[in-house]
What does this fold into?
Amino acid sequence: MSGSAVLSVAVQMEDFSVEEALRRLRQAAPGAGAEVAFVGLVRDQAGSVTSLTLEHYPGMSERSMLAVCERAAKRWPLLAVEAIHRVGTLGPGDQIVLVLVSSAHRHAAFEGAQYIMDAFKSEVVFWKLEDRDGEKVWIEAAPSDHQALTAWEETSGEGAP
It folds into this structure.
């Protein structure tokens, strides 16, 4: 459980390599039977987003991310977690966040990764300023993000909300 899980979190401006992060995850948990990867991207469904600028409070964001990963490792038998969140100005299609989770079994890996992302969206503070055709709009967590985290908190055992 959490005592043996290897947890790594980072906030950085530079892009990340999923392949390099997966290599680190495999080194941290060589006995894993399952790995789950989630990559979040800057989306532009309406074709009007020119950029997304993310800011954070250094130190606080990393501590919040680590606390979420620790909770996940206490709830599921995770072997390793690697989470990276980018800051700075990004364009449509750019990678924003990476969550990699390994476990002996797929259900724990899937659920652990989903929980971590749901908690990141609701709890970890990143200020997001979207530029939509020259108009700047602050983006906040959606009610559905908070509802997803609440559903996890209401379930005491493993199982999707």
Remarks:
- Strands lie at 6-12, 34-41, 49-55, 78-86, 88-90, 95-103, 127-132, 135-139.
- The two ends are 21 Å apart (CA to CA).
- Residues 106-123 form the longest helix (18 residues).
